């Protein structure tokens, strides 16, 4: 039995989130194929930790049991992650950045101890795969500070990102802007179904 952590990083309302709809479809199909696997849900909108941005004024207490270590323990207990989010001003939502900052800690999720080439050694190697499901308002914006950044940070922490990143684009452009998230799933449905089989 595998443990799958589903992280919702969308800041849209629950009934109006295209990336959450992608995640829900992915998990529904995954459970059909893997009924015995445990699904763990984490909504960053509901986590106090994700509301806290690191500053020089709070760095002394920023990393603590409730906001950091409990989430790191959770990450070390799971086998796979499904992560959804949308592009916000060419980057990722602040709640996801705050989560990343809270769990990226030297000697807990990465270390330079034992490194012979100067590169960090990731300590989340238990995570076998991460499925990134994302949305964009248009098509012309780059992915380097968006999905590629998220992929790179997880790999830095030792997790594997074997699954192909799926991005549903043009969500702010008609006709998609007028459609429901369920209707907009049609654009990426085949990608999602294919990804589930390989996850």
Automatic annotation (TrEMBL):
FMN binds at residues 10, 17-19, 135-138. Residues 2-190 form the Flavodoxin-like fold domain. GO terms for molecular function: electron transfer activity; FMN binding; oxidoreductase activity, acting on NAD(P)H as acceptor; oxidoreductase activity, acting on NAD(P)H, quinone or similar compound as acceptor. Pfam families: Flavodoxin_2. It catalyses: 2 a quinone + NADH + H(+) = 2 a 1,4-benzosemiquinone + NAD(+); N,N-dimethyl-1,4-phenylenediamine + anthranilate + 2 NAD(+) = 2-(4-dimethylaminophenyl)diazenylbenzoate + 2 NADH + 2 H(+). Its EC number is 1.6.5.-, 1.7.1.17. It comes from the Bacteria. Binds 1 FMN per subunit. Keywords: Flavoprotein, FMN, NAD, Oxidoreductase. It is an enzyme of class 1 (oxidoreductase). Gene3D superfamilies: 3.40.50.360. Its cofactor is FMN. PANTHER family: FMN-DEPENDENT NADH-AZOREDUCTASE 1, FMN-DEPENDENT NADH:QUINONE OXIDOREDUCTASE. Quinone reductase that provides resistance to thiol-specific stress caused by electrophilic quinones. HAMAP family: Azoreductase_type1. Homodimer. Belongs to the azoreductase type 1 family. NCBIfam families: PRK01355.1 (NF002370). This is FMN dependent NADH:quinone oxidoreductase. It comes from Mesoplasma florum.
């Amino acid at each position: 039995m595998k443990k799958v952590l589903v992280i919702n990083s969308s800041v849209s309302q629950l009934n109006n989130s295209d990336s959450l709809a992608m995640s829900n479809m992915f998990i529904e199909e995954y459970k059909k194929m893997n009924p015995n696997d445990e699904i763990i849900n984490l909504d960053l909108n509901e986590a106090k930790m994700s509301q806290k941005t690191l500053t020089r004024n709070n760095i002394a207490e920023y990393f603590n049991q409730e906001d950091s270590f409990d989430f790191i323990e959770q990450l070390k207990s799971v086998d796979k992650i499904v992560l959804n989010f949308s592009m916000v001003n060419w980057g990722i939502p602040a709640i996801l950045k705050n989560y990343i900052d809270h769990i990226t800690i030297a000697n807990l999720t990465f270390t330079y101890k034992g490194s012979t080439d100067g590169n960090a050694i990731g300590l989340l190697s238990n995570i076998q795969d991460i499925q990134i499901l994302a949305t964009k308002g248009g098509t012309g914006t780059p992915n380097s500070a968006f999905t590629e950044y998220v992929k790179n940070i997880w790999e830095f922490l030792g997790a594997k990102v074997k699954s192909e990143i799926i991005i549903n684009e043009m969500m702010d452009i008609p006709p998609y802007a007028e459609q429901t998230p369920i209707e907009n799933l049609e654009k990426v449905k085949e990608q999602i179904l294919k990804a589930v089989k390989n996850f």
